[in-house]
Amino acid sequence: MFEFFKKKEENADNIENKEEKKGFNLSFSMFKNIISKTQNAISESVSEIISSKQKIDDDMLEEMEETLIKADVGLDTAVYVVDKLREKQNKLTPDDIKPFLKNEFNTILKEAGECKICLKDGLNIFLITGVNGAGKTTLIGKLAYQYKNEGKRVLIAAADTFRAAAEEQLEIWSNRAGADIVRKDGADPASVVFDAIKKAQAENYNILLVDTAGRLQNKFNLMEELRKIVRVIKKEAPEQITESLLVIDANTGQNGLKQAEVFKEATDLSSIAITKLDGSAKGGIIIAIAKEMKLPVKLIGVGEKMTDLKEFNPDYFIDALFD
Amino acid sequence: MFDSLSEKLQNIIQTTSSKKLDEDNMADALREVRRALLEADVNLKVVRAFISTIKDRADGEQILKGVNASQQLVKIVYDEMTKLLGSENKPLSTAGSPNLIMLFGLQGSGKTTSAAKLALRLRKDGRNPLLVAADVYRPAAIKQLQTLGKQIGVDVFTIDGSTDVRDIVAKAIDYAKEKGFNSVIIDTAGRLQIDTEMMAELVLIERFYNPAEKLLVIDSMTGQEAINVAQTFNEQLDITGIILTKLDGDARGGAALSVVHSTGKPIKFTGMGEKIVELDPFYPDRMAQRILGMGDIISLVEKAQEKIDLEQAKEMEKKMFSKEFSLEDFMSIQKQMKMLGSLDQIMGMLPIPGISKKDKDQIAHLGEKHLKQVESIIQSMTPQERKKPDILNGSRRKRIAKGCGLDVAVINKFLKDFENMKKMMQQFNKMKGNLGSLKGKRLPHQQFRPPIRGKRF
Q1: Can you give the residue range of the structural domain that contains B393?
Q2: Do residues B317 and B455 make contact, with C-beta atoms less than 8 angstroms apart?
Q3: Are strands A207-212 and A124-130 parallel, antiparallel or unpaired?
Q4: Which among B253, B292, B293, B295 has a CA at the least distance from the CA of B270?
Q5: Which of B101, B329, B390, B444 could be a cystine partner for B213, CB 3.0 to 4.6 Å?
Q6: Total number of domains in chain B
Q7: Could you tell me the pLDDT band of residue B2, with boundaries at 50, 70 and 90?
Q8: Is the peptide bond before B266 cis (omega within 30 degrees of 0)?
Q9: DSSP result, A31-74
């Protein structure tokens, strides 16, 4: 009765067995496997467009623009990149298109900043924010697990005191990861953060992960609440903020840009984490955000398991998209 | 960044004197429409199909007096989109005993919240709903549904520790029959549409129990991929409708058009916010305006109607124009304003020409700050001072300044502004007789609607 299912493209078990699955770094083959669906979208379309043509013509440029739009890079970014291509239309051949686009995207991603998370000595605070359903709590569980495995002392602040059972969800994750948690159910989120910072400082934790309630960026009061949390961290541990991380669902369309803009202003964002990249979405919003907001992607969520959070590698990402 | 379509179209200069819509005079406007749709995240395939429909439909149409080709075209775009979004909208099926409703979608799309909201709506419709926690994977998902169920007083069926979803559903149905629940809402785990195993779980339930409603929950912020998600869920489960969530955000929501266009299934409800109130009905006309960037003024008007007590509003209007208007009254007006949402939400719903979204946000931001200040000033006064601001002498003002942490100068300015406002309103009241003729006037897009009952506030 299952013949109506599409065949799954990759063999999950096969990936599972690979040793690298456990680490924080992702090898290129792993990465390519995971985002193969994304790759199909851009790479194959590009191949189709340029096949059987000798010259770069206007139709080709237009189709190229549409291919990029389909990957959620957004109209402005697509137009920007294709316009650059258009300028060199007569100097390049269709075969040059892929390298050209790769190079453009590479520049955009690299100019947005360093993609590696650099830990300091002593306490490192991570503020994790995002809209509802982006995957913040899950990401924190995985991040805690990662640092715990590296032998760090990890504390989690359950500052999502709003959503039903958010604290329970986080506690389950923290237990799985072997991290400690500060919970004050129903309390003011900023006070949870305050307590967590005090505890982290007093007990020499290396990592403090602050979970916050999901909020849509157009909710003034909720964004104010976030500013209050930021003020508390800045006052109590100004030197200890390692990352202010916005979590974005890979399925997000152009609203992702707006999210980055507003959260950046409210929380001094330092980077983006993109979740659910194991789905069929292209995650092209990464490119738009890097270009418009100069925010680098540092983490990617690629599955449901504890080990499915990886460092972002822009070279791999671009190679996987185009090769 | 997203300028509204109507603003853009204002800038298209008419180059043709033709009295009919043709390829030439439509080209510029259609390009802007295409742009607007893509910026709103409507899927490219859908954009193409839609634009081609518009071309066919509009070609040769007589241009009405008083409008230009672009304006006429936008009207056609708006009408067509409304039609597309709103066709075939049937009410929720209550077939089956018990009546089975299954919710599914990607992770984080808002299924659990929607399930609780749907239960609330069904109960308002006179049904006796049971929520079933069938998300056995996400940590604390069951606890979340239980907490929500408790909040709204709806029973939640769970089996501790079980991961057999089919068994949970079977037992839930037995339980419902036994206890007299006539609607059973199944909250399933979030899943990727490309995850064969997880999709099989849903298909099994679907084939075994044949739910009357199979609703796909989809996030209104979804990008180009919405179409593939919806298509796959529809192919495998033959969905009966869509719940569009997080519409209280500022995404333009082009995903709505993509999913309706690609599945032919209606959007049955929309979700607005995390507070558990019943799911909102879907209004195709408003969605079309939103996707096209035309503001959402009708929503604002209706929200005002819903939230503001009419009697109280009448009373207040009387007071506002009288000499007795006090700071206390002023506060309660502000409170009513607040119920409509934050200022940025209100501003966002108003299609104010010539003001960009960014400026609107800026104004709203400052306004909100100002309102907060005013609130803290009034809260630092005694009840007597609020009723009779005249008694506020220097020392009282100093005390208030201390109480709210502001400068005395700020207090002075506020009181002066308030006095001026009072004077202005009294003058306005005198003029009111002459303004009577304005009362029946309605905005153009309200022309075919029943009259709005709400008072101005």
Answers
A1: 301-446
A2: yes
A3: parallel
A4: B253
A5: B101
A6: 3
A7: very low
A8: no
A9: HHHHTHHHHIIIIIHHHHHHTT-SS--HHHHHHHHHHHHHTT--
Token match 């220097």: residue?
B394
- Give contacts of B343 with chain A, Cβ < 8 Å: 220
- Contact of A181 with chain B, judged by CB distance below 8 Å, is answered with no
Which pLDDT value is given to residue A41? 59
> Rounded to 5 degrees, what are φ and ψ at A168?
-60, -45
Are B320 and B425 contacting, i.e. CB atoms less than 8 angstroms apart?
Answer: yes
Cβ-nearest to A253 among B107, B224, B364: B224
Q: Which two tokens mark B208?
A: 């075994």
pLDDT (tens digit per residue) in A52-111: 778 888 888 988 898 899 889 989 999 999 999 999 988 999 889 889 999 999 999 999
**Cα atoms in the Cβ-side hemisphere of radius 13 Å centred on A200:** 32
Does B248 score more than 50 pLDDT? yes
In chain A, where are the structural domains located?
34-111, 124-314
Cα gap B59→B82, rounded to integer Å: 19
| CATH domain A34-111 topology | Four Helix Bundle (Hemerythrin (Met), subunit A) (1.20.120)
DSSP letter string, B2-32:
---HHHHHHTPPP----SB--HHHHHHHHHH
Percent of chain B whose predicted confidence (pLDDT) is above 70: 75
Instruction: Please tell me which of the candidates A173, A216, A253 has its beta carbon nearest to residue B223.
Output: A253
| Residue B4 CB contacts under 8 Å (≥ 6 apart), including other chains | B292, B293, B294, B295, B351
Residues of B in contact with A139 (CB under 8 A): none
Chains A and B form CB pairs within 8 A to the count of 172
pTM: 0.77
- State the amino acid at position B155 in one-letter form: D
Please give the pLDDT value at position A311. Answer: 92
